[in-house]
């Protein structure tokens, strides 16, 4: 790939790209700046790696606009761009050969009901099971060992990795990615107590709906609704080992990090950021754009948009930081109490 | 279904059911009160939905006994019952067509050892593996991709969803439900340190025993005992992504919510309620009927029956709330110290 | 097994083994001290079980060196050893028949690419899938339903339990154990925000490297690197449901308990002990030999070797215990403030 091609490609996404140094370089590979060689394209985004820039043998380096190139450029090119990391990612995507999970076509060992409506250019792996009355859209890839029970609709250009399970009746949109071992549509956790202390299972007859462009990590669980739908809205990204309980709604473009858990019927708004190991109680609502700190325990609704909350129980960050600051002042408070006691004693005697 | 049939059915479970309004209605569907139409049976349990009651077009509404029907009943019937939600659930179960995971019978792609003792009316999905010397009881359904290693006994009328793994030698009772991706009987996490800092694996030669009527969620883990048995007692319900370590005992009718973890050899009593993301250290004992708040860190035994504990480290709720209250008083304490200092200074001068 | 054989075997691992009592006993089984019978070998390690020693009918009891045998030895033998539990484990391993997950050989239903390089004495279970250009070393066992995508290298004498997924390009060393449902090499959780609030997926083109003698629990997740490698070093042991994010390094002989999570690019040293439900933020470094208490939230690097940290945010244990102690003194502090106020008021009037 030539520098001219790279520039043209990046200009689809970035404005005001500036090129310095040798323009005739050819790019053959991409890689990290440590150990980069001639023919490599690399980047520097984190200031602590800037020291590598002058010494690198990479042929092209994506650098932040504000970086001063006060050294010999030699036969290298430097591309100044707003966000070198994202620029690198775009190029990485363009230059990497596409990873094919499995060969195109339906593997002979896949067990597919005759009633399945199959799109074009679909790839179905070995030992896949697809039940009655399912639909699989054009260009979708389903990894070995994945199981899709009756009446599921999977949209176009989805990628389901191996050993995923989709329970009956769930609906998946287009361009969805689901990683290995994930469970979509298992029964919600609902039991009615009986007088003898045992429980009667509450039937879970709803479904799960996953909208377009959602990515779901590995070994996570999204339970079907008791009635109606558990919904993950367009563009949401959910990491490994997350729990989304029955009847939840996860908003559009909301990001949930690993091992967080959302209890039943809780609604999380659009464009939220939920850090790892956060827990939400059931039946609450979180406004759009809320940012939840790692390990927070969210025990009530937060309806103000765009706020940051943390702690367990979670509070607005200002309250929570005040409390943390006072906790750090406990030794000082104790000393001041002791000083007061001593002074008072002296005063009295 | 006629109102007479509904009443007769509910009277198996509830006393003093009262019917008001039009008794000739016919029920065709069940649904939520928002958007219910003629022919629907619905319910109101949560007071905030009571406003929907007068306006609903549903033909039958299950309502709490204390709800006053001070509006036109029109051609609708109202059934007063102690717990409309549970009544609704019973009716839902009766009126919903049973969901069949897979067709009856053994799929031709299932790999089943000749030595397996198979009950009647068993359904085995595609690509299931059942090892030597296993038993599968009457009416049990095993989903596609599930793997059962040697010497496992599965009782009657169990439902194992897809991609479950049961390790060798484990024993499952009757009417057990296990959701997709769950792991039963993996090796307990036991390692003996060697002088060079590395570890020697401690053999895990025990098993897991799951008693009748247990329901286990998706992607959870119950490890086999080092020696003897890890046990989940009759009627316990365990949610997705929970960890139950080697040699634990989970009591009868105990409910454990998602992402909780129980460390090795800990015994949890009967009829306990454990909320989400709780952690228990190993080798402790929890009495019957104990209620553990979300995210608690239980670091010692709690032997008083029926108590509620919370916090990390977990304490009896009274202690824990006192401490939380004092934390909220920290700003006030600081102000009172400052006031004392000022007064003392004034007094001295 | 005779006592002479037992002694000879243990002397490979322990010094100064002392035998008391009847030396002609024969061992047929191993078991717990409660309920042990003639012919059993058992052990006592925990002082609270010492009361069972004098009464046991076991033929041989492994006991701590310091235990005084001030009772009738009868026709039993007692073996004094530094660590009876580990001694027992060694014997357990020797005396137990090896558990074979599946029969030797490649099952006819396994789908294995022609390009796979297969070692000798390999066992491949039913419905396994192995993609193009993989290698499987001598003596390795791969359980039913496990999926290995293209270009994966699995070393010698590994044991992969059922329904595991290994993504393309990952490299596993020798003598590795991976339990059921685990996901190795799923895409790291990386997304670049776009101006409209949606996210563009950052390609994850790195791999996961698992070194020799690592054991990984069930349903855990180790994500592939964005670039380069996510690494689990030799001899590390990771429990069920743990999350290891992209580009992490887990040190040699480090032990991580269930449900802990390590965020992206964090490096954990060698010989660390991480308790259950701990969370680490991304891009930090933990020194060798650090001990992390249960449920800790590690929000910064800890570079001092061998220290113990706990709490959320995690602190050195000394700081953390001071703060906990002061929290317990809050009621006393409040009382002392009230006393000061009363005295001052009295003094003024």
Number of domains of chain A: 3
Our Rg estimate of chain A from Cα atoms comes to: 27 Å
Shape of chain A: flat
The total of beta strands of chain A comes to 38
Pairing-aware structural class of the strands and helices of chain A?
alpha/beta
DSSP strand content of chain A: 25-35%
Largest interface: A-B, 59 and 62 residues
What is the helix tally of chain A? 4
What's the name of the CATH homologous superfamily of the largest domain in chain A?
Answer: Hexapeptide repeat proteins
Strand adjacency order, main sheet of chain A:
6-9-12-15-18-23-26-29-32-35-37-38
* CATH class value of the largest domain in chain A: Mainly Beta
Question: Can you give the mean pLDDT of chain A?
Answer: 94
Please identify the oligomeric state: homotrimer
Taking the sheet with the most strands of chain A, its summary is: 12 strands, mixed
Going by CATH, the architecture of the largest domain in chain A would be 3 Solenoid
Poorly predicted ranges of chain A: none
In the CATH hierarchy, the third-tier topology of the largest domain in chain A is known as UDP N-Acetylglucosamine Acyltransferase, domain 1
Helical percent range of chain A? 10-25%
N-end to C-end Cα span of chain A: 89 Å
Enzyme class (chains A, B, C): transferase
GO biological process, one term (chains A, B, C): lipid A biosynthetic process
Subunit structure (chains A, B, C): Homotrimer.
Function (chains A, B, C): Catalyzes the N-acylation of UDP-3-O-acylglucosamine using 3-hydroxyacyl-ACP as the acyl donor. Is involved in the biosynthesis of lipid A, a phosphorylated glycolipid that anchors the lipopolysaccharide to the outer membrane of the cell.
